[in-house]
Amino acid sequence: MKKDITVQPYLFPMPTYMIGTYNEDDSVDVMMMAWGGICDTKMVALNLEANHRTVANLKARKAFTLAVPGTDTLKESDFFGIASANNMPDKFARTGLHAVKSGKVDAPVIEEYPLTLECRVVEFQEQPYGLRVLGEIVGILAEERVLDGQGRIDAGELHAFAFDQMRNGYYAVGERIGQAWNAGADLMNK
Prior knowledge:
Blueprint: E1 17-22, E2 28-33, E3 36-40, E4 43-48, H1 53-61, E5 63-68, H2 74-82, H3 91-95, E6 99-101, E7 108-110, E8 115-127, E9 130-142, H4 155-158, E10 161-164, E11 169-172
Antiparallel strand pairs: 1-2, 1-5, 3-4, 4-9, 5-8, 6-7, 8-9, 10-11
């Protein structure tokens, strides 16, 4: 039997993405986000609170990277969601991670993250529930270790993790359990 519970943002899994931007002094800022994702074949949507340093950076530079962190960077990635660059200017330096400048946008690429989308800000949308930032994907960088023999990303090799909004946990992602657009195909013939 189902029970009616309090309305909360209870969907699972929620993504864990890392937004990389440059601060006004060219230092690296990284923020973990879970409210957003792909919204078209070459577009991403980020739902953010306007008071984040990352938002100021997005408005100033009109560029960002969006990376998928691996479980090997869970500690550092979680820290990027805890610490605010508004209060801790050396936030990135504290983690010991490394960044290089993107070749396509004015934003950093964090070397330890296996998959990075290089994005150009297309639009800021003030919504009643917060700020939505739309970004065009202009480049994708992937570590060779996460690519299969045909050069496609192998999701299992990302060692990604998802966020659990219900109990504030992280869960490893990666076990393949079926083939999309095939696992339920036999039901078409019923």
